[in-house]
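Sequence, please.
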């Protein structure tokens, strides 16, 4: 079963928002025992939108599938001490609450010398931030969509939270591997801002700006540095088409019967449309020559031809259309199963996209009720502490008698 891949890994998650819960989710759906601690009575994410008709947070359920849920009063010394003891018992903790003094790594390490702690912050120098404020800083707001210089536009998808969460999961696995090899734990710091800058650097966007290659201008749905654009069909649908590389470019021209037209266009402008760069430069002229083919056909015919020619394309559709009509978002896709979720009912719920070649677990797609595992976890924690105390007392007696 996929849930057994990390079956011997246990960790505590104390978090809110997206990045840290996503790290815990990825590990939990690969089989790790992830104990999420929420503030008793409801933490920051307890009622975060979207909500079900019954008022249950679908957001909370989505990010906390496959986890154990423990509710503690983290404003109270007793609740904090219980959390600290649980962290010491599991030996790994991920959190995005770096300002909480009771979560200080140094004091936690006194309880567990080989403790692994991954702490997610806003910026590298300790300031608070969330995905959307980081978006504003990166400059992407001025290149998204049809943004104007006086009207930057953020993207709706929390990309930097997502990068950060998945990188955090990788970091925890790397730290756990190091501990297995060396016995050493450690504090790992990760900032949301640095994750964004890391990716912008990886994609060449920071170098482009530093080397003064000219400002990156908003380009709507066009694919930067290649050819890709949206087109309207005769019956009012819209599709996105990409031609990245010459094989895809030829497939698009053959599908739309525009090979000769593009040859004339290249000669007229003295460019080589066998390169992504020149296709980007002439994107407006290319779009004008392709648009009539789409406008003269209904969506069904367009889809059939593009699919037959193996063109890179996709239909524009709403989230409602995706769920209602697209087989990718259905039980025909092994990613999904219709799972009965607490307080809501059954709905399509994804497992982890990684396919290890084994049967996929339904348990990894089920969310707990908030606080559902509190009594069980605290009872076990108390038993473990008592057993530990007896063990230490026994060791002391034996050692003394042997000297």
């Amino acid at each position: 079963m996929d849930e057994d891949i990390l079956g011997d890994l246990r960790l505590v998650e104390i978090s809110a928002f997206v990045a840290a819960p996503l790290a815990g989710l990825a590990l939990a759906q690969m089989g790790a025992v992830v104990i999420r601690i929420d503030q008793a009575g409801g933490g920051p994410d307890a009622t975060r939108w979207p909500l079900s008709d019954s008022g249950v947070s679908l957001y909370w359920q989505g990010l906390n599938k496959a986890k154990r849920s423990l509710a503690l009063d983290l404003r109270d010394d007793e609740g904090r001490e219980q959390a600290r003891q649980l962290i010491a018992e599991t030996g790994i903790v991920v959190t995005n609450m770096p300002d909480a003094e009771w979560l200080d790594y140094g004091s936690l390490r006194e309880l567990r010398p080989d403790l692994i702690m991954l702490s997610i912050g806003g910026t590298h120098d300790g300031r608070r931030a969330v995905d959307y404020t980081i978006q504003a800083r990166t400059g992407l707001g001025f290149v998204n969509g049809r943004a104007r210089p006086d009207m930057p536009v953020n993207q709706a998808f929390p990309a930097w939270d997502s990068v950060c969460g998945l990188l955090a999961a990788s970091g925890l696995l790397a730290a756990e591997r190091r501990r297995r090899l060396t016995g050493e734990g450690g504090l790992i710091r990760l900032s949301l801002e640095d994750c964004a800058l890391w990716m912008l650097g990886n994609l060449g966007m920071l170098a482009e700006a530093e080397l003064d290659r000219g400002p990156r201008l908003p380009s709507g749905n066009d694919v930067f540095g290649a050819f890709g654009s949206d087109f309207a069909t005769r019956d009012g649908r819209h599709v996105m088409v990409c031609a990245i590389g010459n094989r895809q470019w030829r497939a698009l021209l053959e599908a739309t019967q525009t090979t000769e037209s593009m040859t004339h266009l290249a000669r007229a402008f003295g460019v080589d449309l066998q390169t992504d760069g020149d296709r980007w430069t002439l994107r407006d002229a290319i779009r004008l020559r392709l648009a009539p083919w789409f406008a003269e056909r209904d969506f069904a015919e367009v889809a059939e031809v593009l699919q037959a020619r193996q063109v890179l394309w996709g239909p524009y559709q709403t989230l409602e259309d995706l769920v209602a009509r697209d087989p990718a978002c259905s039980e025909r896709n092994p990613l999904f199963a219709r799972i009965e979720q607490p307080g809501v009912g059954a709905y399509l719920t994804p497992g982890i996209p990684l396919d290890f070649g084994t049967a996929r677990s339904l348990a990894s797609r089920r969310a707990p009720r908030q606080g559902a595992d509190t009594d069980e976890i605290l009872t076990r924690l108390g038993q473990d502490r008592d057993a530990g105390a007896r063990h230490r007392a026994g060791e002391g007696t034996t050692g003394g008698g042997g000297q």
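Residues 238-315 form one domain.
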